[in-house]
Amino acid sequence: MQRKGTTPATFDLFAEDTPQLPSQEQIGPESFVFRGFALPFIEQLLPALESVLTQAPFRNMVTPGGYTMSVALSSCGEFGWITDRSGYKYSPINPLTGQPWPAMPGVFMELAVAAASAAGFAAFVPDACLINRYIPGAKMSLHQDKDERGLEWPVVSVSLGLPAMFLFGGDERRDPTQRVPLFHGDVVVWGGVDRLRFHGVMPVRQGEHPQLGEQRINFTFRKAR
Ligand code: MD3
Ligand code: FE
């Protein structure tokens, strides 16, 4: 997957189809893609991520249906997202360590607040950041995010590493989906009428990212309570 904005611009006199980063796209009435929005934060973001993962390592969770997710998960902030035999929920304790989740690093919070505000959601203070890791082949099936109590708040997502094709559906599982490619540094904000739309991620393709290697990492910032 080649990102348009990274092709050399030499003699490109008609460059309107090769937007420079950062740029903004609207994919729903209240959903926005901010291309490259996380790039100015990267130098601080990656060491903060390392520190979180040392305290709360990734694990492949098993759904209540007995299916082991191909996406590995961790969390930071006041609440993390867990599954057990009884279902999915937010918990202040990491069941793997018996400890509270690592605090949300300052740079994570700054990035989430800035992106929400750029999309018109003022005063967004997330209390949970879910961290997903996709190795090549990993995918996320079409689903809704509705375990949060504060559905009036948006979700902010940050994509790092290998690119992925995001699937954005409608309010019903059977509704058609639009495909949105997401690249290293892209930030997406979903809120309002788009908050309960079905969405998923197609299997991540084999590749090697210069900074993150053979993986895609996605942060989703939410207000869980
Ligand atoms: C649209 N993660 O963790 S982030 C998830 O790339 C999840 O890892 C995907 O879906 C990923 O639940 C996609 C994008 C996302 C997150 C929440 C949404 C899109 C959303 C909530 C409502 C609508
Ligand atoms: Fe989701």
TrEMBL record:
<keyword id="KW-0479">Metal-binding</keyword>
<keyword id="KW-0408">Iron</keyword>
<dbReference type="InterPro" id="IPR037151">
    <property type="entry name" value="AlkB-like_sf"/>
</dbReference>
<keyword id="KW-0223">Dioxygenase</keyword>
<feature type="domain" description="Fe2OG dioxygenase">
    <location>
        <begin position="125"/>
        <end position="225"/>
    </location>
</feature>
<dbReference type="Pfam" id="PF13532">
    <property type="entry name" value="2OG-FeII_Oxy_2"/>
</dbReference>
<dbReference type="GO" id="GO:0035516">
    <property type="term" value="F:broad specificity oxidative DNA demethylase activity"/>
</dbReference>
<keyword id="KW-0560">Oxidoreductase</keyword>
<dbReference type="InterPro" id="IPR004574">
    <property type="entry name" value="Alkb"/>
</dbReference>
<feature type="region of interest" description="Disordered">
    <location>
        <begin position="1"/>
        <end position="23"/>
    </location>
</feature>
<protein>
    <submittedName>
        <fullName>DNA oxidative demethylase AlkB</fullName>
        <ecNumber>1.14.11.33</ecNumber>
    </submittedName>
</protein>
<dbReference type="InterPro" id="IPR005123">
    <property type="entry name" value="Oxoglu/Fe-dep_dioxygenase_dom"/>
</dbReference>
<dbReference type="InterPro" id="IPR027450">
    <property type="entry name" value="AlkB-like"/>
</dbReference>
